[in-house]
Amino acid sequence: MAKFKFYTSFLIIFIIVVGCGQNPFTGKSTLALVPNSQILPMSFQQYNQVLEESKVIKEGEHAQMIQRVGLKIANASERWLMENGYPNYTDDYKWEFNLIEDDQVNAWAMPGGKIAFYTGILPIAKTEAGVAAIMGHEVAHALANHGQQRMSAAQLQQVAGAVGMMAIGDDQQSQQIFATAYGIGSQVGIMLPFSRKHETEADKIGINLMAIAGYDPDEAAELWKRMKENSGGGGPPQFLSTHPANDERIKNLQNWSSDAKKEAAKYGVTSFQ
Ligand SMILES: [Zn+2]
């Protein structure tokens, strides 16, 4: 038994050592236990499953707006990556932005650039810049590999629990871990919360992306004020339960807005919608 424990600890350390990489958006070493080649096919499959089980709005003003904002934010992130020496970072991504007919106040991103907005969040987003603030935040989670890091933690837990010794490299097991980490499957689109640290990172990356994409970064704080106003009443909507709209978040975004405008100016963007 002691020997078994020793091997388990050794395996965990080994995974941590080989699994660390530099994340261009945070400048930090991040734990990437599961490589893109393994996680992205799972993500794409899960995303398609969600779309199949949902009513996707393909035409009309709102669906077009989600597409337009998504492409602009994705384009902004690719310009940023190119400029900062990571031209191939999103090579394996397959960007997709879908609007789902659902009254839930919700929006989320899966690894590899798979984004969904629910119609229920549109009244709070209110404007295209409001949509861009949410989109920037969600795309930032995907780019910073926050989901992947969360999944790694789930997988490490399994290893520590001595269940996962054989699970690594096992497709079915990995699928299950993915579903657990994302909380999807039977409850479509229900996401586990990110840590506060990841939320703050996504806010900071997101506000820069929206500015580079030509959307007024002042609108990010305005969006979260509306989120806060909507957080009362009959229980928190899905998005707000994982994204607390508190004063600290609003204040941070107000403080970061002028830096985001300066960042956008580096890309020749000086006027905002
Ligand atoms: Zn978030």
TrEMBL record:
Signal peptide: none
Transmembrane regions listed in the UniProt entry: none
Keywords: Hydrolase, Metal-binding, Metalloprotease, Protease, Zinc
Cofactor note: Binds 1 zinc ion per subunit.
CDD domains registered for this protein in UniProt: M48C_Oma1_like
Superkingdom per UniProt: Bacteria
Cofactor: Zn(2+)
Keyword Hydrolase attributed: yes
PROSITE patterns named in the record: PROKAR_LIPOPROTEIN (PS51257)
Residue ranges of domain Peptidase M48 in the record: 93-256
One matching Pfam family: Peptidase_M48
Gene3D superfamilies: Metalloproteases ('zincins'), catalytic domain
PANTHER family associated with the record: M48 FAMILY METALLOPEPTIDASE (PTHR22726:SF24), METALLOENDOPEPTIDASE OMA1 (PTHR22726)
Similarity field: Belongs to the peptidase M48 family.
Protein name: M48 family metallopeptidase
Species annotation: Psychroflexus longus
